[in-house]
Protein 1
Amino acid sequence: MKYSSFLFIVLLSMLSCKNNTARKPVVQKTSSFLEESVSFNKALISEEEAIFKELIQLDSLNSYVQSAQGFWYKVEQKDSLRYLPKFGDQLSYTYEVYAIDSTIIYSFEEIGEKTYFVDQQEIIEGLRNGLKLMSEGDTYTFLFPSHKVFGYLGDQNKIKINQPLIYKVKLNKIKKKNESN
């Protein structure tokens, strides 16, 4: 009996030790997802640019400037002072946010006055770049593509995913970094 159970265990272990062939991976990694993502983003940017160009044509009384950072803006009110914000300057500004169809999303009152230390705090990319173009007292209207504002996440409140936006911004005060309190 002992001999037969020993023989059974030896046979079982010999049969279980055969070479297993490797399985093919269930998920094969390819670059197709990346290619699809690039194609989607290029189409989205192209579509948003077409919308902005149409808006600019409809607003023929104003002239818009295309920035090197990938957004458009027009000057609503320009102050005679021409000091542009630099690293570390403290900016006080107000703004409101509109959808492309000019419906208001966030008003000046809802947002209130904001403070920003240039290039030392995180704010959305479009606003960060736009504020650097302005002088104290200026009011600009910015046309931001979705990737310059809230992108594929939206603000998880009123701003939808991949939504291009119009910002009306007034730069109230620039406190230079070197100024004492």
Protein 2
Amino acid sequence: MSATIREARPSDLAVALPLWEALHREHEARDPRYRLSGDAAQRWATDFRDWARSDGSRIWLALDGGRPVGLLTAHLYQPAPTYRPCLFVHVDDLYVAPEVRGSGVAGRLLDAVRDWARAAGAEHLQAGVLAANAAGRAFWARQGAEDYSVTITLSLSDG
């Protein structure tokens, strides 16, 4: 696929937001415990504008002939003070439109974040993936990612 990968600008919100919303609709469909707040899109839109101007955050878009087909958001972090100091990058959102999955867009988005992370001096990259997202987990495994921590959930409701 000949999609163009580029960093997002604050003016790209109208392009990026539908991709972000599609990602979270897929998450909600995969696991009923995954539920966003009613104002999540408004909050993300506000954050998007800040992230697109920040040195510590990056957003990349994949565009195929001007049509948005992919999104990746990432942020630089330091661990809590009880851990050895090291700079790392956390990928918050990675989404590729279903019609172009398998075409290399996700890998190219990840290459962009890897380049940025290395240039920033980050030691590693991390991301969270829903346990129910088999395709997402397989993608990360193909990239060489390994489980580091597993989040478990224990329901406290009776029904």
Protein 3
Amino acid sequence: MPAAPPLFAFESVSVGPPAARRLHDLDARLPAEGLTVVAGPSGSGKSTLLRLCNRLEVPSEGTVRHRGEDIAQRDPLALRRDVAMVFQRPVTFAGTVLDNLREADRDCDAARGAELLERAGLPATFLDRDAGELSGGEAQRACLARALATDPHVMLMDEPTSALDARATDVLERLARQLVAAGTPVIWVSHSEEQMRRLADCVLLLADGHVDREGSAEEVLGGG
């Protein structure tokens, strides 16, 4: 029986004009399961790679495949419902938290909203809260709940804890691991080696727009 295709495959992918490439002829495979951390120094192409996964960026050259399918052939809006994203800084819309959930699912009622908030680590009482008055950690969890409203098959997380304190970071990391345990693969961009060691099943390490190393966290990071 043939092996399942990778979650995402990047085939000779370059992004940006020749004189200012953000990714250079990159070849990489992200595993179909678990939590993959994409790491590397600032400017190495981490966020660009993540944004390629749901066509917020498109390659200048090469092909990006999702479970074997060229995503250039997918409708971008349908793709983004399957491949949801939580950004580095939470962006909420005007209105209540429930209003924000309805931006992703117009039919979301209070019962569905309470379920989504529970999955994101917030109580149902937050449904009526003004989204603009949430703390950073609360807003990030509300954005996670909004991303979950489309029942995505993949969750992309672009340094989602970079502006959070240790407690809020711990909550979000635990939620990511719960998603993985429930069968939703997560791709998480990070620059923190400590976070990689806590979270990663697999690490893709970038440098100057190229793959530096890839493999299990132990293979890439070693002991320590």
